[in-house]
Amino acid sequence: MTEGNDQVRQSPLAGPADALEPAAGEAMMTLIRRLYPICRSITGNGVRQSLDIIQELIPLRRHEIPTGTRIFDWEIPREWNIRDAGIRDMSGRRLVAFQNHTLHVLNYSVPVRKRISREELRGHLFTLPDHPDWIPYRTSYYKEDWGFCLAHNQLSRLTDAFYDIEIDSSLAHGSLTLAECVIPGQTEEEVLLSAHLCHPSLCNDNLSGLAVQAYLLRWLASEPRRYTYRAVFAPGTIGSLAWLWLNRKRLHAVRAGLVLTGVGDRGGFTYKRSRRGDAMIDRIVVRALQDEAGPSTVRDFSPYGYDERQYCSPGFDLPMGRLSRTPFGEYPEYHTSADDPDFVSAGQLQGALALCQRVVRYLEHNRIWRNLSPYGEPQLGKRGLYGAVGGAGGPDQQRMAMLWLLNLADGTRSLLDIADRAEIAMDVLMDAAERLERVGLLKNQSVQGSGLNVE
Amino acid sequence: MTEGNDQVRQSPLAGPADALEPAAGEAMMTLIRRLYPICRSITGNGVRQSLDIIQELIPLRRHEIPTGTRIFDWEIPREWNIRDAGIRDMSGRRLVAFQNHTLHVLNYSVPVRKRISREELRGHLFTLPDHPDWIPYRTSYYKEDWGFCLAHNQLSRLTDAFYDIEIDSSLAHGSLTLAECVIPGQTEEEVLLSAHLCHPSLCNDNLSGLAVQAYLLRWLASEPRRYTYRAVFAPGTIGSLAWLWLNRKRLHAVRAGLVLTGVGDRGGFTYKRSRRGDAMIDRIVVRALQDEAGPSTVRDFSPYGYDERQYCSPGFDLPMGRLSRTPFGEYPEYHTSADDPDFVSAGQLQGALALCQRVVRYLEHNRIWRNLSPYGEPQLGKRGLYGAVGGAGGPDQQRMAMLWLLNLADGTRSLLDIADRAEIAMDVLMDAAERLERVGLLKNQSVQGSGLNVE
Amino acid sequence: MTEGNDQVRQSPLAGPADALEPAAGEAMMTLIRRLYPICRSITGNGVRQSLDIIQELIPLRRHEIPTGTRIFDWEIPREWNIRDAGIRDMSGRRLVAFQNHTLHVLNYSVPVRKRISREELRGHLFTLPDHPDWIPYRTSYYKEDWGFCLAHNQLSRLTDAFYDIEIDSSLAHGSLTLAECVIPGQTEEEVLLSAHLCHPSLCNDNLSGLAVQAYLLRWLASEPRRYTYRAVFAPGTIGSLAWLWLNRKRLHAVRAGLVLTGVGDRGGFTYKRSRRGDAMIDRIVVRALQDEAGPSTVRDFSPYGYDERQYCSPGFDLPMGRLSRTPFGEYPEYHTSADDPDFVSAGQLQGALALCQRVVRYLEHNRIWRNLSPYGEPQLGKRGLYGAVGGAGGPDQQRMAMLWLLNLADGTRSLLDIADRAEIAMDVLMDAAERLERVGLLKNQSVQGSGLNVE
Fold first, then answer.
1. Is C409 an 8 Å CB contact of chain B?
2. Using CA atoms, how far apart are residues C27 and C138, in angstroms rounded to an integer?
3. What is the mean pLDDT of residues C297-309?
4. b vs e for A328-343, b when ≥16 Cβ sit within 10 Å of the residue's Cβ?
5. What average pLDDT does chain A have?
6. Where are the beta strands (DSSP E) in A286-400?
7. Distances C371 to B86, B237, C130, C256 between C-alpha atoms, Å
8. How many other CB atoms are found less than 10 A from the CB of residue A287?
C-alpha cells in the first residue's frame, strides 16, 4: 500500500470528561442531605423550601399556579400541607410519628383526628411484608383518603383494641409551585432538562436527578453555548403538565431534552428513547454511552414512566429521552425508606454529571462539516498531519479520524453521522475536526449559531 | 414515580376466540367424511357433486366454463369423467379396483380397455417403494396418458404374463366448474378466500381447507362486517385462473386474502407471505399467530406452491398469503392414500377456524384512532380508568394498552401499527380502544365503513 | 398441490467459469516473474519498463505528467531513478547491495556517497526484528531522506566503526508515468479497473493485481460487451490522482469499478465495499462471491487502504470497491521481501481472474426483464419447459429459476434484484432468462445497449 507518510503528531486529547468543580459529587451529596428531610408533595411548602435551597446554587424563576386552574385535561388540586401526624396507643405512647419519617403519612392525606378500632385502622395502613423494616411510599392525590405507612414489623406492636390517630394536614385553596432555570446560549433553540420535585424523603427518586440537574446548570453557565438550556424543577405529572401549559406556545424551540431521574444508585446507565426513537438526543446519548464504554442499557420508549409521559404525549412529541441508572421498580429500595442517603453515592452522582456534560458537548459540537479539498485525499504530510516514512504499520485513531472526516464531510452529514459510520468516539472526531479546520481543510457548514440543520 | 392513581377496573375481556358453533370441529370432520369418497379432478362431475354437498352449508354461485375457452395463457381442457377402472389377472380376479380407492387411477387417464403384457403394464404403474402400503396420487392433465397407482406391495402379486386392463373414463367437450360464496359487508372492499377443489380422496390436501373455508363463511354471515367476504371453491391452477379471468375487472376491490390448504394435520401453523411481503394481511396474520402464542412459522413468498402462484402473479399481485399447517411435501403422507380421514382431526380443524376468525376480527378492527386529548396524558382516574392509591406496583396489561393507545393514536397509525410497536395483543388493544371511545377520549378516524385508509 | 406437469429438460448450463486461455494462471506467473526484478517507484524508469512488458499483452495508452504539475491538492514530484546502492565495510566488502534486492534501498532515497560512523548509519537502517531474515519495504516520497532496508540478521555483521555508503540515485525534473487500456463496448458507460504499479520487488502487492488486470482485459477483448472497460495501470495515490485529474471531465461515465490488489496469496477473497456501500458493483460482487461459495469476507468501506481512497473521495465518490485476498497488513509477509514469487500461485491468480470474469458476466447480464404473460403463470408445459406427470416431487433449481423470473420480471427489477430475493445464483437465472426469452415469455426491458437503468 502506498501512503504519503506515517508519523503522527500526538496532540493532547480531551480527557473522558472535562475537569469538574472539585468534588462535585460530594457537593451533590451535601445538597441531597439538606433536601432529604423535607416532606415534598405535588403542592405545598415542601416544594417551596426545596426550591429555596436549590436557588442558592442556580438562579430560578418560580411560578405559582392557583388551585382550580385548568391544565389541559387536568385541574390544579387544592394545596396540601402537613405539620404533624401519628398513631398513639391507649397509653398515649406514639407508635408511628411523622416527625420520624415523612413517608409515615399517606401523601396528600386529608386531616383526621379520632379514636378508632384496630380493625378500622388496619384498612388505612400500608406495609411491605417482604421488607419488614422498610416504610413504603404511598400517595392519594386525587381521591380523598388518609393513611399511614409503616414498617411491617411495627404492625405486630399494634395490639390494643383502639388507637388515637391524628393527621394535622390541610387541603385548601392555594397553588402549585414550579421553577425553571434558563442558561441562554447563542441561539434561541433549546435543550430542555426536567427533574421531578414531588417525592418526599427519597434520595435516588429523585433528589439525585435534582442534584445532577442543578450542578449541570452551574457548569453550563461557564461554558460557551450554541443552545439555550432550560431546566424544569417541578412536581411529577401535574407539575410538568403545568410547565407545558405555561410554555405551550414556545415548545417549537426545543431541539433536544432529557428527563433526569434515579441517577445516583449503584447501577449502570439506562437510557429510554424518546417517542420518536431516532431523535438527535437519542442518537447522541447512545453515542455518548458507547464512548464512555461503561455498562449501560438503551430501551425503547414506552408510555409508562416519569414525566417523559407528558413531554412525549402525541400533542407535544418533544424529542426528549430519559436518563436513569437502575430503572424505577427494578430495585427493591424503590419507593421505600431504604432509598435513603446511603443508597446513593458521590461517585455515581459525579458519573451521571460527567455523562450529561458529555451529552452537552456532543450536542454543541454536532456540526456539519465540509471538506474544502474533496477531490482525492488532500496531502496531509505537507501540513504536518502525516508521518514521513511510509510502508510500515497502520494508522492510529487520530489519523483515521482525520481520514473519515475528510471522506464523509461532504456537507450532508453531521459529526454524529460520521461518528456512527466510522465507529470513532465523538471526542476524537471533535479534536480531529478542529485540527483540520485549523489548516483550512474543513469548514463548518452549519448556519452560524444554529442547530436547526444538524438533526 | 408519580402516577395519578392505581387500582384498575377488571373488565371482561374477549376470550382467545369467540364462541364457535358447538363442535364446529366435529361438523367439519363430518363434511370431510362425506366429501372423501368422491373422485374429483380439475373438471368433471366429482367437482359438481362436492359443490352440491358444500351448498348445503352456505350459498354458492356456480360457474361452468366451456372446454376450449381461452383463460389468459391457458385453455379449458376437455372434461374428464370416470366410472370405473381396474386390472384383472388372467383368472379374471380384480387386482386393482378404482371402486376401492379413487387414487388407483392416474387422474385424467384416457379411456383404455385391452389385454397387455406385464412389461407394458409396468410402464403405466406408479408406486411408492418407501411406503409400500400407500397408494400415490398422480395426474396427467395436459398430456394424454393412462395409468394406475397402487401400493408397492401389490406389485409383487402381478406375476402373470398378461393382464386385462380397463379405464372406463371419458375426455370430452364439457366445462370446468367453480363456485363462489359472497358474504356482503358494509363496503365493497373485499377479503378474498380460496381453497382448491380438484384433489380426489385426500383429506388434508385439501378437504381441510374446503371445510374451514365453508365454516368460516357460516360464522361470517352472523357477524357485523365492514368488508365483503368472497370465497372461491375451484380446481387448482386452471380453476383459480378461471376465477381470476372471470373477475379480472374487479380485482382492485381485494384488500386482503388467504389461500387455505392443508390446515387439518397435527402440525403448527405455517403462513406464507404474499408476494408483496408486507401487505396488511401479512402483518395481520403474523400478529394473530403471535397473539395465539402456539408454535408457528412464517415463510417468505416463493412462486412455487398452491393457488397463491396465480393470485400473486405479477399481473395481479393480490395481497394474499397462504395459511397451512405442515407445508405440502414436508410430511410423508402428502399426496398419498395415507392422507385419509384419520390424518386430520376435529381439534386441528377447529384451531384453524379459530385462527381465521381471529384474523377476520383483526382485519375488521384495524382502524385508525385519534386521541382527542393529546396534550399530556388525560386524567384517567376521574373517568374510573385508573386506581386511586399511587406509589406501588406497575401497570397491568389493560392500563398499558390504554396508555399506548393514547400515546400513539395520533391519526396516522392503525391499531395494527400500535399493536406491533407496543407488543400488545390486538384483542387487548381492541378492548382498550372501545373503553377509551366510550369515555370520549378516542375517536375512530377511519372513513366510516371504509378500510381503504388502514393498509 | 396442482401443477401442470413435472419433467424438466436438462439444458447445458454455463459452468462455474468460462473456459480460460489454457493455463492462464501459469501465464500470469510468468508475467509476475518478469516484472519482479524491476525497481519500481511512483516515478522513474522502473514504471516505464514494467509498462513495456505489460504492453506485450494488451494495448496501452501512456501518459507522462511533468514534475511540478498541480494535481488537485498535490504536485507531481521530481522523478526518481536509481542505478546502484550499497554499504561497504572498511575492507571494501559489500554488505548490503541494491543489485541483490530492490528493497534494500529506502524507496526515493536522495543520492548519497560518504563514509559515516556506525552510529550515524544506524539512524538510516530499517529492519524487522520479528522476522530477522526478511527485508522490509520502506519509502520516503515527500521528505528528502535516504536509507537502507536489510534483514535484521545482517545488523550483527555491522561491527566496524565506519562504513562507506553509496546511493547512486537521481531526483530530478522529469515526469510521472501511467497507462490505461480501453476495451470499448456497445455503450460509453464504463467499468473502471485499477491496479497500482509503484511497488518494487513485491509480488502479491501488487504484481498479482497487475497480472489479473492484464489477463482480464485480454479475455474481455474477445467477449461481447455492453460496457466499455477502462483499466488504469498507475503508481498508487499520486498516480491514481493523476489519472482522476486527467479524466475529471468524464468520470460521470463510470458505472462500476474495482481496485485489484493482493489477489495472489493463499487466502480467500476479501471485498471492500465502495463508499456508497450499496452500489451495483457492491451487490454484484457480493452475489458473485455467494455463487462461488468459497470462503470470502465482505467489509464496509473505510477511508484507509489503496487507491479506493482516491476514487471514493467525496468529490468523486465513484462506485468502486476493492478486491483482494488476505487484506494488506494482515499477513506477515506484507511489505517485506517474503512477498516473493513463491508467495503467490498460479491457482490463486487463476481463481481471482475467474471471479473477475464472473463479475463481468453478472454486470453485463444484469438486465431488467419483463414477463409478457403476467396474468397467472404461463403454461410452461405446452412450451416443453415443464414435466408431464404431476403430483410427485418438487421443482428443481432450473424450474424454480423460471418461476421466480416469471413472477418478479415486472419491468421494475434487475436480474440482480431477482437473484437476491430468490436466492438463486445469477448464472442459473441468466440461463433461465435466455430460455424464457427464446419461447417469447420474457423480454429485455433495458434500453438497448444501455446499463443506465439497471443500477
1. yes
2. 30
3. 97
4. beebebbbbbbbbeeb
5. 92
6. 296-299, 320-324, 368-371
7. 44, 18, 62, 27
8. 20
Q: CA-to-CA distance for C412 and A72, rounded, in angstroms? A: 51
Are residues C376 and B315, on separate chains, in Cβ contact within 8 Å?
yes
Look-up of cell digits 479539498: A373
The reported pLDDT for the residue numbered C396 is 87
Residue B289 backbone phi and psi in degrees, to 5: -65, -40
**pTM metric for this prediction:** 0.90
Report the C-alpha gap between A445 and A453 in whole angstroms: 9
Question: Which of the other chains make 3 or more beta carbon contacts under 8 angstroms with chain A?
Answer: B, C
Other beta carbons within 10 Å of B439: 13
What is the chain C residue with the closest CA to A382? C142
Other Cβ atoms within 10 Å of A453 Cβ, number: 11
d(CA B217, CA B221): 6
C-alpha span between B264 and B209 (Å, rounded): 8
Residue A402 and residue C303: Cα distance in Å, rounded? 9
The C-alpha atoms of residue A32 and residue A211 are separated, in whole angstroms, by 7
Nearest one of C433, C363, C309, C361 to C189, comparing CA atoms: C363
Q: What is the pLDDT of residue C22?
A: 53
B313 touches chain C (CB under 8 A): yes
Query: Which of C416, C420, C309 has the alpha carbon at shortest distance from C362?
Result: C416
DSSP letter, residue C315: T
- For B408, name the nearest residue in chain A, comparing CA atoms only: A314
ipTM here = 0.90
The three-state secondary structure class of A350 is: helix
The chain B residue lying nearest A236, using CA atoms, is B2
Bridge partners of residue A385, in order along the sequence: none
Closest residue by Cα to residue C366 from C216, C269, C256, C289: C256
3-state secondary structure of C322: strand
Rounded average pLDDT over C128-133: 97
What is the C-alpha to C-alpha distance for residues C442 and A24, in angstroms, rounded to an integer?
74
**Which of B197, B170, B164 shows the shortest CA–CA distance to B97?**
B164
Q: DSSP letter string over A125-152?
A: EE--TTSTTPPB--B-SSS----EE--H
Q: Are C1 and B303 in contact (CB under 8 A)?
A: no
Sequence-distant (6+) residues with CB within 8 A of C370 are C409, C410, C411, C442, C443, C444, C445
Round to the nearest angstrom and report the end-to-end CA distance of chain C. Answer: 38
CA distance B452 to chain A (A): 24
Chain C environment of B42 (Cβ under 8 Å): 2
Per-residue cell: C435: 430460455
Cβ-based neighbour number of residue A423 at 10 Å: 11
Q: Which residues of C touch A392 (CB under 8 A)?
A: 126, 136, 138, 335
Say if residues B428 and A324 touch (Cβ distance below 8 Å): no
Residue in C373, C370, C452 with CA at minimum distance from that of residue C412: C370
Half-sphere exposure of A431 (CA within 13 A, CB side): 18
pLDDT, average across residues B320-333:
97
Give the closest residue to C261 by CA, choosing from C230, C236, C293: C236
Give residue for cell 433495458.
C446
Contact B317, B275 (CB under 8 A): yes
Residues in chain B: 455
Helix H segments across C195-319?
Answer: 208-220, 238-246, 280-292, 308-311
User: Beta partners for B182?
Assistant: B230
pLDDT at position A448 is: 45
Q: Tell me the nearest-neighbour CA distance from B169 into chain C, angstroms.
A: 18
What is the C-alpha separation between A386 and C89, in angstroms, rounded?
Answer: 35
How far B255 CA lies from chain C's nearest CA (Å)? 18
Distance from CA of A387 to the nearest CA of C (A): 10
DSSP state of B131: S
Residue type, C42: I
Query: Which amino acid appears at position B28 of this protein?
Result: M
E strands within A300-390? 320-324, 368-371
